[in-house]
Amino acid sequence: MTAAARAMRLGLRLWDQLSIYLPIILMGLLALGTYWLVRNTPPAAPVAGDKPVSSEPDYFMRGFSVKTFDGNGRLKSEVMGTEARHFPDSDTLEIDQPRIRSINDKGLLTVATANRALSNGDGTEVQLFGNAVVTRDAGTDSAGNPVPALQFRGEFLHAFMDTERIRSNKPVTLTRGGDQFTADSMDYDNMERVMDLRGRVRGVLTPRAAP
Q: CB neighbours of 38 closer than 8 A, spacing ≥ 6?
């Protein structure tokens, strides 16, 4: 046997032995490649869930007037102010120099003013801060008897426009026609005709002429 033949037979024998381990070597190379890809692939961006509602104002209004109407197109309320800021987390509107007009089912007008106000989304509940004044026009009751104008004054008034209720945990002055009352706190329900004055209560009643 020549030297060339012996070398060929030796090479074939080595190739046969190498071919046995070839799949293992290829799998090792594939595993190393996969590991390299995992190490060098940037992490996937986290799935964005529902973002928490911000407590910062999401819009502003200046020199505005917002009106609401009932199903028949009748004006129910109007909110005006020099500037307003809407807070989405509580759906409230903070208003500078507010002027709020509300008309009840009997057509009686109630006007609220203050240095600053905090209103819910539809303007039915308003907190008034600083020089707060709520005035309701004179009218008549269900029996047709005249009802004098009514005014509340204080540094804080909490007005519920739909239910015609006004509360305050601070000193207030109430004027009804020619009568005047002061108290440390108050809860007034116009629909029930109930007034609860608490603390140091004082009143001045004006004599009425005999019928």
A: none
CA–CA gap between residue 24 and residue 40 (Å, rounded): 24
pLDDT > 70: percent of the chain: 71
Torsion of CA 43, 44, 50, 54, to 10 degrees: 50
In the chain the domains, ranked by start, together with CATH numbers, are 59-204 (2.60.450.10)
Q: Is 26 left (phi over 0), alpha (psi -120 to 50) or beta?
A: alpha
The first and second tokens of residue 89, run together, are 């987390």
Distance, in Å, from the CA atom of 87 to the CA atom of 65, rounded to the nearest integer, reads: 18
Q: pTM for this one?
A: 0.69
The three-state DSSP-derived secondary structure of 136-147 is ECCEECCCCCEE
